[in-house]
Amino acid sequence: MTDVENLHLTLAFLGNVENQQIACLFDIAERICTVRFDLKLDLVIRKLQSNMIWLTTDQSPVELISLVDALRLELQANGFRTDDRPFKAHITLARKLRSSVVPFGIRPILWSIGAISLIESKNDVNGLSYLQLRSWSLANNDT
């Protein structure tokens, strides 16, 4: 199972990043303009290829898709590689699962997204851990 403090929603996975690239990533995040939004998580699925359990959604909000698209464009314009596959919002609940799990619906969890963060992942003898390097608040939605 994933430790609670490690639960997160990845917007763009960058892989290994050199220290001198961190300032560029900070600048990119500063330029991303979007408003706060809610993400409804309502489905648990198993990714067979990776033996992982995900908490996900049937429908990603338009604000989330716009955020990911803008982030990918900025990253690519600055020489970073991004995933070309369509974005699928998910939170990893468990890795290296050995038993089978049938996808099932759950009572929806509404997650209010008010910030984005640059996170560094570390893999050591204790498993994966994450370090927040910086966070940026999203604008209030005054509509």
Strand content: 35-45%
**How many H/I helical runs?**
2
Order of helices and strands: HEEHEEEE
- Strand arrangement within the widest β-sheet reads 3-2-1-4
Total strands: the figure is 6
Q: How confident is the prediction overall: mean pLDDT?
A: 86
| Helicity level | 10-25%
The number of domains: 1
Tell me, briefly, the overall form. globular
Largest sheet report = 4 strands, antiparallel
Under CATH, the topology is which? Cyclic Phosphodiesterase, Chain: A
Please name the fourth-level CATH homologous superfamily. Cyclic phosphodiesterase
Structural class determined from secondary elements: alpha+beta
Separation of the first and last Cα atoms: 39 Å
Would you identify the CATH architecture?
A: Alpha-Beta Complex
Q: Measured on Cα atoms, how large is the radius of gyration? A: 16 Å
Which ranges are low-confidence, i.e. pLDDT below 50, for 5 or more consecutive residues?
A: none
User: Can you identify the CATH class?
Assistant: Alpha Beta
